[in-house]
Design brief:
With 210 residues, the protein is α/β, with parallel strands linked by helices. Helices cover 38% and strands 20% of the residues. β4, α3 and β5 form a beta-alpha-beta unit. About 10% of the residues have low confidence.
């Protein structure tokens, strides 16, 4: 009797696992059916070349209406609350005058979770609600971060090439947009790159180090 009960329990577990797998496959099919981009491009570095795609595109029309700044925010796929916090704070027009005149267009760039259909379905919902996600075919891992930065630059050249300023940040950064605009207006029209200079730093040559 104990043996029969064990077999029945194992059978129920297998059925449950099959059900979960079928739900996962169904959600993945729904995700792929939603894809509105599927634009393929190649990421090239001196030591590596990979194929990539833009799977979901945001409202790129905003880039064609004379926007002054393009901000691309690199974000982890599952960081839904962080993206919402950004939308509610420094990307909210109540907190920055410059956002009210359309001079700034901002998008979040995320990778894909091939093994988590629940997260990807939530990404679809988020994209439909806010229309500000750039979803790439890159797996959402730390190792692909450099490729995501490349993808952000590719997106800028492909869809927002005429903006005057391009800003790439991570989702743990806060920007005072009005103050940024004041500083930018004080610059000359010459091409510049601004940032901090670190002197006498040694190049890290560990293969696994970003």
């Amino acid at each position: 009797m104990h043996f029969i009960n064990s077999i029945l329990a194992l059978f129920i577990v297998l059925l449950y696992q099959i059900s979960i797998k079928n739900d996962h496959l169904r959600d993945l099919r729904e995700f792929w059916s939603y894809i509105n981009g599927s634009e393929n491009f190649t990421i090239k570095f001196m030591d590596e070349t990979i194929k990539s795609s833009l799977l979901i595109l945001p409202n790129v029309e905003a880039c064609k209406k004379g926007s002054k700044y393009l901000i691309v925010i690199i974000s982890r796929t599952e960081s839904f609350s962080i993206r919402n916090a950004i939308r509610d704070t420094w990307l909210n027009s109540k907190n920055a005058n410059i956002l009210r005149n359309g001079f700034i267009v901002a998008y979040f760039l995320v990778g894909i979770k091939y093994d988590d259909s629940t997260i990807m379905m939530k990404i679809i919902d988020e994209s439909m609600k806010y229309n500000d996600l750039i979803v790439t075919s890159l797996t959402d891992t730390y190792d692909t971060l450099t490729f995501k930065v490349y993808t952000a630059m590719y997106f800028k050249q492909a869809y927002c090439k005429y903006v005057r300023y391009y800003i790439k940040v991570d989702d743990d950064v806060v920007i005072d947009l009005d103050r940024l605009d004041q500083q930018a207006n004080s610059f000359s029209n010459l091409a510049h790159i601004y940032g901090a200079i670190r002197y006498n730093d040694r190049v890290i040559r560990r293969r696994m180090d970003k």
